[in-house]
Amino acid sequence: MKICIINGPNLNLLGKRETDIYGNVSFERFYNQLQEKYCAVEFDYFQSNIEGEIINKIHEVGFSFDGIILNAGAYTHTSVGIGDAVKGVHSPVVEVHITNTYSRESFRHQSYIAGSAKGVIVGFGLQSYELAIQSFLLES
């Protein structure tokens, strides 16, 4: 099984940025733990602060991977382009968020991705990614 994890803007600062909200573990450390725990899964990881690069990555893996886990960060609430990219590929996409976006500012309640996603997981910290992985494994 091949799963691509795509993280959007500012997620490269996990472990450093607003640790009271996002925790103090870097994504790289967490990603290494995922690779060890799910050794039967072939992971690809990509992070960008640039909308077009995220769209390009979705296009690149969206026809050959078994699944995409997408945390588009703030682009979730602003990018019709990323939403259209998700709609345009064949690989199922699970939208994830570390925080409960519905308990935050009202503009974070809108997602341009959710309508085309297989599912949405919010509010479980970094475990949101693991829940997404498990959703793909249950279907295989």
UniProtKB/TrEMBL annotation:
<feature type="active site" description="Proton donor">
    <location>
        <position position="97"/>
    </location>
</feature>
<keyword id="KW-0028">Amino-acid biosynthesis</keyword>
<dbReference type="InterPro" id="IPR018509">
    <property type="entry name" value="DHquinase_II_CS"/>
</dbReference>
<comment type="pathway">
    <text>Metabolic intermediate biosynthesis; chorismate biosynthesis; chorismate from D-erythrose 4-phosphate and phosphoenolpyruvate: step 3/7.</text>
</comment>
<feature type="binding site">
    <location>
        <position position="84"/>
    </location>
    <ligand>
        <name>substrate</name>
    </ligand>
</feature>
<comment type="function">
    <text>Catalyzes a trans-dehydration via an enolate intermediate.</text>
</comment>
<dbReference type="Pfam" id="PF01220">
    <property type="entry name" value="DHquinase_II"/>
</dbReference>
<feature type="binding site">
    <location>
        <position position="77"/>
    </location>
    <ligand>
        <name>substrate</name>
    </ligand>
</feature>
<feature type="active site" description="Proton acceptor">
    <location>
        <position position="22"/>
    </location>
</feature>
<dbReference type="GO" id="GO:0009423">
    <property type="term" value="P:chorismate biosynthetic process"/>
</dbReference>
<dbReference type="GO" id="GO:0009073">
    <property type="term" value="P:aromatic amino acid family biosynthetic process"/>
</dbReference>
<feature type="binding site">
    <location>
        <position position="71"/>
    </location>
    <ligand>
        <name>substrate</name>
    </ligand>
</feature>
<dbReference type="InterPro" id="IPR001874">
    <property type="entry name" value="DHquinase_II"/>
</dbReference>
<protein>
    <recommendedName>
        <fullName>3-dehydroquinate dehydratase</fullName>
        <ecNumber>4.2.1.10</ecNumber>
    </recommendedName>
</protein>
<comment type="subunit">
    <text>Homododecamer.</text>
</comment>
<dbReference type="GO" id="GO:0003855">
    <property type="term" value="F:3-dehydroquinate dehydratase activity"/>
</dbReference>
<keyword id="KW-0057">Aromatic amino acid biosynthesis</keyword>
<keyword id="KW-0456">Lyase</keyword>
<dbReference type="GO" id="GO:0019631">
    <property type="term" value="P:quinate catabolic process"/>
</dbReference>
<dbReference type="GO" id="GO:0008652">
    <property type="term" value="P:amino acid biosynthetic process"/>
</dbReference>
<comment type="similarity">
    <text>Belongs to the type-II 3-dehydroquinase family.</text>
</comment>
<feature type="site" description="Transition state stabilizer">
    <location>
        <position position="17"/>
    </location>
</feature>
<dbReference type="InterPro" id="IPR036441">
    <property type="entry name" value="DHquinase_II_sf"/>
</dbReference>
<feature type="binding site">
    <location>
        <position position="108"/>
    </location>
    <ligand>
        <name>substrate</name>
    </ligand>
</feature>
<feature type="binding site">
    <location>
        <begin position="98"/>
        <end position="99"/>
    </location>
    <ligand>
        <name>substrate</name>
    </ligand>
</feature>
